[in-house]
Write a structure and sequence with these properties.
Layout lengths: L8 H15 L5 H21 L5 H6 L1 H25 L1 H10 L1
């Protein structure tokens, strides 16, 4: 994972997760996941745009932008999947008890 974290990194991430969990009350997990990924991609497109002076300048760096965010997401996803594999019984115990 990118080492560009600060002391509030996980708190912000948890806030997004809590919001997503709130939507599970009336929406399927896959739909909530899709909305969360769309929101992250939309926000990251905006963050990227703030670094440029023109659409053409951004277009020239499009491949690098996509590669950067794709690599970051892949690394974070792999880390979290590995964590769930290692802690599966503990994390999924609540599911089994429900």
């Amino acid at each position: 994972m990118n080492n560009d974290t600060d002391e509030k990194f996980f708190g912000r991430a948890d806030a997004h997760i809590h919001l997503a969990n709130d939507h599970l009350a009336d929406t399927a997990r896959g739909k909530v996941s899709a909305s969360m990924m769309y929101a992250a991609s939309r926000f990251n497109a905006w963050v990227s745009a703030t670094e440029f002076q023109s659409g053409q300048e951004m277009a020239d760096k499009r491949g690098e932008i996509v590669e950067y965010f794709s690599n970051q997401y892949k690394a974070m996803l792999e880390e979290n999947i590995d964590n769930y594999i290692a802690q599966f019984d503990e994390y999924m115990k609540a599911k089994a008890e429900a």
